[in-house]
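Hello,

Our lab assistant flagged a job as stuck in the queue for most of the afternoon. It eventually completed. Since we weren't sure the result was trustworthy after the delay, we are filing this so someone can double-check. Below is the sequence as submitted and the structure that was eventually returned. Let us know if re-running is recommended.
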Amino acid sequence: MLLNLIIIAIGFALLIFGANWLVEGSCNIAARLGVPERVAGLTIVAIGTSLPELVVSVTSAVAGHADMAFGNVMGSCLANLLLILGLSAVIAPVTLSRSTQRFEIPVSVAACALLALLANTDGQVTMIEGVILLAAFAAFVIRTVVVGLKEGAGEKTAQDAELEAEFEAEGRGSNLIRDALFIVAGIAMLKFGADFVVDNSVSIASALGISERIIGITVVALGTCLPELVTSVVAAFRGNSDIAVGNVVGSNISNLLLVMGGPALFSNIAYDPVYNVDLALLAIFSVVLVGFAFIGRRHEMSRANGVVFVVLYAAYIATSVLR
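-- returned structure --
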């Protein structure tokens, strides 16, 4: 048992470092190709923080552990919204932009409804339904890129100029090789990390008589959402509340559409109706987040609101384990 826990910890470390290396290499290459930093951040970084969930879910689905795949996604989404965003607000009040209220959160709620509709149709997420989820995610990314390009048109930040100078000074060829190696190493670390986490989590669940769903929404979900936790908490300490909110909401959209759509391309994923409760809670709490913008100071999630979300997360975990 202790060995399993150690291997799971190693697996989480591989997932986190692998995602970071993959994102860093991809962002550097994007910068060399002239892709605006803002657009790269809205796409590559957002997807990168969801890579641990994606790889773990694909590995779980292919191995026939559907409860682990769904539990990972549901647990990660609720941890992102209630625990991570709640802690960020406790550290410093979080600003809720009009874009977040009017677009990202409604898209997140719509993603919950779409996944619930497809999964409940025939008790599983099939390849065709996976394609539908991925198409919806692609539409979201395209819209994000288009808006980002319009907002950033003609703008060149000091950091962009600094990166260009760095590329010229160090040599584009050698940097390109380094970034390509980062990407390859990141992918390898994600693969091995996911195998370590899934295989050993299943072993622990079997030994203790705990369901894969409980392991998925607790241990696996908390481990795979560590990139979002670190990103949002650091952003909160620095006063960058837009990053904290965008990271959480964007990651949830990626989890619901990309992370559940991707595994379905490899194998049909059996769906347990018990997850309807999790999807409903995620949609409800997302709407509550919008409500915070009209309670107290306008367009802000206060420290008290953050405490409420953290308490709700603790209650969710407690009731999930006991039921």
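-- support follow-up --
The delay was a queue issue, not a problem with the job. The result is valid. The chain is about 85% helix and 0% strand. The longest helix spans residues 172-208.
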